[in-house]
Amino acid sequence: MAPAQMETAAPVVAPANRLAGKVALVTGGTRGIGLAVAKAYAREGAKLIIASRTSSELKNAMADIKALGADVTATRVDLSTRASCESLYTGAIRSYGKIDILVNNAGVLGPLLPIVNYPADEWDRVMRTNTDAVYWLTRAVLGNMIPNNGGSIINVTSGVGIKGRANWGAYAASKAAVINFTETISEEISKYGIRINCINPGATRTMMREEAFPKEDPATLPHPNDIVNAFIYLASDVAKGTTGMTFQASDWVGRQF
User: Fold this and answer.
1) What are the tens digits of pLDDT across the range 92-103?
2) Catalytic pick from 41, 89, 96, 171?
3) How many domains does the chain have?
4) Most buried of 43, 63, 84, 91, CB within 10 angstroms?
């Protein structure tokens, strides 16, 4: 088992039932940040739909979340196509009738190469998964959130989306696009009581981080459980009126609200 998966940190916030009655859809919800967020939401009383490409990971994650007493549905899906994103949304509505919270967490790193050497098919794959899927899912979910006059959409971005970095190619470009998309659409949907924000997790103990920085010691990094506060805050009613912003998860470690 990879070092990034070995240690488990305790949740930093005592559950307060702040998401009771809400339904949350979390993509990439079977490991790393996505699984930590899904579990945190479950502890806060939310019903969950978790999505991933890997059946075995879905089975294990669903068992872990059910052990917390949560109502959870798991869906195997590749989010690189519009049809798969819309199918995920349709299934979620069929299961729960609504979506109050969407966490666009699923993403792929792609090769770390100069743009001049970057394979075109890899560029397309990364952009479809990291950027297009955010658009497709957000657009679909708004079809439910607008009539319900409320909801929270949380997009996971990256430090290289805020400030580009050599050799980060499509990943950096995709995350920058997500930030701009968030800022753009926030002005369009706020009149419906819907908020949309980004979270930059920063350096966190995940498999993707280990892939990008293989020489780094994962034990020196925060565990995904340590950064879930920002996700709980933005999903809760406490954050009503907060929209179009990019939050640094590190600012919310141990923070009470």
Assistant:
1) 999 999 999 999
2) 171
3) 1
4) 43
